[in-house]
Design brief:
This protein is mainly α. Helices cover about 40% and strands about 0% of the residues. The chain is elongated, with a radius of gyration of 34 Å. Keywords: Membrane, Transmembrane, Transmembrane helix.
């Protein structure tokens, strides 16, 4: 039983005192990530300040109300077909 504990407790990672670069490198990475985060937050705040307070309502300019009755149909009098989505991109055709 004691032998198993000694095997598990044995340091098989070599000499951990040589090099001594892990502490300063870790500090450098933490400072670097902190600086990048602060710069990204400042950049995002400046971009958000440039946005307008309100965006215009979707649907085009005001004063040009279009209804379905004002849109002329086909000249032969048959009802027009509704636009179908483009199968390649899924967007409606104009």
């Amino acid at each position: 039983m004691l032998n198993a504990v000694q095997v598990l407790a044995e340091n098989n990672f070599g000499d951990t005192r040589t090099g001594g670069l892990a502490g300063p490198m870790g500090l450098f990475l933490i400072v670097l990530l902190g600086t990048a985060t602060v710069l990204l937050i400042r950049n995002m705040n400046s971009r958000l300040r440039r946005l307008p307070d309100r965006f215009p309502e979707p649907g085009g300019p005001v004063g040009t109300d279009r209804t379905d009755s004002s849109v002329p149909g086909p000249p032969d009098g048959t009802p027009g077909q509704e636009s179908r989505p483009n199968p390649s991109s899924g967007h409606q055709q104009p």
